[in-house]
Amino acid sequence: MHKHDVKGVLFDLDGTLADTAPDLVYALNLSLDDAGFSAQPLDKMRHAASHGSLFLVKTAIPDADEALQISIQQGLLQHYGRINGQHSRLFDDLPELLTLLDQQGIPYGVVTNKPARFARPLVDKLGLTPHLKAMVSGDSTRHAKPHTAPMLLAAQQIAVPPEHILYLGDAERDLVAADNANMHGGVALWGYLSAADNPHLWPAKRHFEHGASLNQFFVE
């Protein structure tokens, strides 16, 4: 894959475009405290932040029964709705990348499994809303990633054929979704990968160590 193959860029949100773990883990800890559990350190929980609120809870209290886990998940979502975006930011070098894409006339957008009620306020707080040509949330279509439906909807929104889109993500489902949709998959190695992840086995065209290496790809 060469930069000339790429006419549009789509990003996963949590762990790829934005570092949202501080907000998510803070909301988790508020809910854990409500239920009488100890807070979890951010560094221990960061890898779980790409996989949804219930996964965060199960990582924090794996031995709790399912009903309690779901109850704490609901508390997490209530707290998160209040604090969403307060401590989140774009990852290093990605603001410069977005400026570069704007300068090169390459449209970009977001495809996330995060529900719209959280995803849209977050991208707004990050200052991205005026710049995104696509904003596809987990409930924008009937299916979430790794299904192709949200991917193809975003391709329509940025008006670029899938085979000319680079999709960046930090989880296996992101790269499977890109592959299924005939997009170029790029692994965001700076994201929320765990020690158990093996991104070199994922169906990706490129692996990017950090935002700077992604920027370099577009100036080569």
TrEMBL record:
GO MF term set: hydrolase activity
Domain of life: Bacteria
Entry-linked Pfam families: HAD_2
Signal peptide: none
Keywords carried by this UniProt record: Carbohydrate metabolism, Hydrolase, Magnesium, Metal-binding
Gene3D superfamilies: HAD superfamily/HAD-like, Putative phosphatase, domain 2
PANTHER family the UniProt entry points to: PHOSPHOGLYCOLATE PHOSPHATASE
Protein name as annotated: HAD-IA family hydrolase
Source organism: Shewanella phaeophyticola
